[in-house]
Design a protein that fits this description.
Elements (H helix, E strand, L loop, with lengths): L7 H4 L5 E5 L4 H12 L3 E6 L8 H5 L6 E4 L5 H11 L3 E4 L6 H6 L1 H20 L6 E5 L25 H19 L8 E7 L2 E2 L9 H11 L3 E3 L5 E2 L2 E2 L1 H16 L1 H4 L1 E5 L7 E2 H11 L5 E3 L17 H6 L8 H16 L4 H13 L1
Parallel strand pairs: 1-2, 1-4, 2-3, 4-5, 5-6, 6-11, 7-10, 8-13
Antiparallel strand pairs: 9-12
Helix pairs in contact: 4-6, 6-7, 8-11, 11-13, 13-14
Length: 357
């Protein structure tokens, strides 16, 4: 058992068996660390971390939780792991999560995000222990019409690029399993969760603005922006993670009431452009040096995307705690302290306590 975080939501998982797919990734490593600290028995199933520098390794999670390196495309493996571990909660975060990578290798993206999801859902269908499933997709699952208002859970699904299309397709697969199988199991609650771009410490993914800024600052190079005027629903990753956990507990208590699809995004007044976010990070590091470098490809990239989260606010009593400035400040502090030699567990734990305290 890890250090128990004294928060009612987190301690609800104490002593529970939780399976997290994608636990070596950015969001997954934060979630696995939180639930371990809260006293849950956590099993993570994922590929090795995608970058040499990564949050999972810095936290030493492979020694703290049950850690299995495997591919979601291996149907027999995930099914056997599920049956052996007998989880009560499942958080599905494993994915090929980058738009640009989906253009480079669309087949891998579709295989991972669609077939991998089928394998996960099929394993759950064959495992009686599961009581609560959080199936994480993306805000990009919606057909993006560049609306100025937020997308609701019942808006049209779609996707211009392979990544977005794969997430829309995964939602359809989830819906089919939910209506055909899970809805007939009275003690199983299943929900899909859609969140916008998240920021926070421990992300070193390629072609994401905060990691790109940190790499440029560390190397002394100029920060290059491909689409500086694009707006994004910036939020600290603890915001949607708190929503996922709250929804998971709600599903356990009232599976029929809370099953379905849910948005978790920031307030509309917190939307900022890529250039605004870059300037904020630069100011925190007292760094100068940015250049606009137009993309040399014809790849489509959405300029405007916002979620309507009224459902989560009204039915779950969930709402963002940190505004965009607070999220950016926490993110900058995390990278600064790591650069100064502070232990990643201490920095991450402190930010969790600050958020949930």
């Amino acid at each position: 058992m890890g250090e128990v975080v004294s928060n009612k939501l987190l301690t609800s998982f104490r002593g529970c068996r939780v399976l997290i797919t994608g636990h070596t990734g950015f969001k997954g490593s934060w979630l696995a660390f939180m639930l371990h600290e809260a006293g849950a028995e956590v099993l993570g199933y994922a590929l090795p971390p995608p970058q040499e520098k990564n949050h999972f390794s810095l936290l030493g999670l492979s020694k703290k939780i049950k850690h299995i390196e495997a591919d979601m495309r291996d149907a027999d493996k995930i099914c056997n792991v599920m049956k052996e571990f007998k989880p009560e909660f499942v958080f599905h975060l494993a994915a090929q999560a980058l738009v640009k990578s989906s253009y480079i290798d669309p087949k891998l993206t579709f295989d991972t995000n669609i077939s991998g999801s089928v394998n996960l859902l099929e394993a759950i269908r064959k495992t009686d222990s599961v009581r609560s499933l959080i199936f994480v997709t993306s805000d990009k699952c919606y057909e993006n019409n560049d609306w100025i208002w937020g997308y609701r859970e019942n808006d049209q699904l779609g996707g211009h690029d392979p990544y977005s299309a794969s997430k829309a397709a995964a939602e359809l697969v989830f819906s089919a399993y939910s209506r055909s199988y899970f809805s007939k199991q009275n003690e199983l609650g299943a929900a899909s969760a859609r969140a916008g771009n998240v920021i926070g410490g421990g992300d070193w993914s390629l072609d994401r603005i905060i990691p790109d800024c940190i790499r440029a600052i560390e190397s002394g190079n100029k920060i290059q922006l491909r689409n500086p005027n694009a707006t994004r629903p910036w939020q600290h990753l603890l915001e949607p993670l708190s929503g996922y956990m709250l929804l998971a507990i709600s599903l356990l208590d009232e599976p029929k009431k809370y099953s379905g699809s849910w948005n978790f995004g920031p307030s509309t007044d917190g939307v900022k452009s890529v250039l605004d976010v870059t300037k904020h990070i630069m100011n925190k590091f007292n760094y100068k040096g940015v250049e606009i470098k137009a993309s040399d490809t014809n790849e489509h990239e959405a300029n405007l995307l916002q979620l309507n989260c009224d459902k989560a606010k009204q039915l779950l009593n969930w709402k963002p705690k940190w505004n965009t400035e607070q999220a950016l400040d926490a993110t900058a502090v995390w990278y600064k302290e790591i650069a100064q030699g502070t232990d990643a567990c201490d920095v991450t734990r402190k930010q969790i306590l600050d958020y949930f305290g």
